[in-house]
Amino acid sequence: MTQPTPSAQLRAALDLAERGIPVLPLRADKGPMGNCRACQKNACGGRPNMKTPGPCECTAPCHAWAAATTDPYILTSTAWAPAWRQAAAVAYHPGGTALTVVDLDNADAIAWARQNLPTTRTVPSTRGEHWIYRGSMTSRNGVLPGIDIKSAMSYARWLGPGTGTLALLPDVVRALAVKEPTAARPASSPIGVPAPAGGVQCPHRSPAYLERGIAMAEKCIKEAPEKIHTTVYRLFLAVLSAHGRCGCLTDGHIARLFKAAQEKGESLRHCEDAWTNASTTLGM
């Protein structure tokens, strides 16, 4: 009996799976295909609860990132056939192949990345770009306005191989996913930036590079619609990670960030605590 011709999406998924990339089908709205009857409302317990990648026991694409697989027998099984016939796109689990995707959703987010992140492989997306790094980490959405991090326990739409060489996942990206400590550390000394270690070379291409980074951080703080505490802390982490070890960051730059935060309603005390916590997190 003649086997049905695989859909374009399934053919793409099988090609990725052969390269060791765990894949799953997506709907037209970029959401994962719906649960099967046996797993509706996660009745089966689901792999996400066990925090391990792989298909659920019914082998259907029930649980988004956790259903991603490289197994061609599962991908072409009867259980998955309806999903691939209806799929509008293919997604993959970045963390399952030791990658991290920085999803930049608009022009401002792309500008921030160009000023603060090392160049790496990039892929155009519907509204912005995906910057892909080598290494996995905790995933978190909304780390900055228009920026999501997709790695462990997350999925990203497959948009092609992209261009450029994969760079190692930088500390500035890892710092963005760190939650602010629930107990702030009191500032025991005047706020500032530690002196750089001997031999550290400034990575900035020009003074304008640092200026653009500070201006973008100010803008992100001023435009934060909510969760201002978290936004301030994450931006302090990002600024310190990108600019805090070379000696270029001055008290004037810090004052600008504090002023932007205070204009959004933050207290000076909280700014000092957030800066101290960010420095401690980065080991500075």
Q: Whole-number average pLDDT? A: 80
Oligomer: single chain
Shape: elongated
- Report how far apart the termini are: 67 Å
| Tally of contiguous helical segments | 10
Q: What string, H for helix and E for strand, traces the elements in order?
A: HEHHHEEHEEEEEEHHHHH
| Contiguous runs where pLDDT drops below 50 for at least 5 residues | 46-55, 183-188
Describe the structure.
- The chain has 284 residues and is of the alpha+beta class.
- The chain contains ten helices and nine strands.
- It has helices at residues 8-18, 46-50, 72-75, 81-86, 107-116, 171-176, 207-223, 228-243, 251-263, 268-281, and strands at 23-26, 89-92, 99-104, 121-124, 129-134, 140-144, 147-150, 156-157, 167-168.
- The strands form two sheets. Strands 3, 4, 5, 6, 7 and 9 form a six-stranded mixed sheet that branches. A three-stranded antiparallel sheet has the order 1-2-8, covered by helices on one side.
- Helix 5 packs across helix 7.
- The termini are far apart.
- Mean pLDDT is 80; it is low at 46-55 and 183-188.
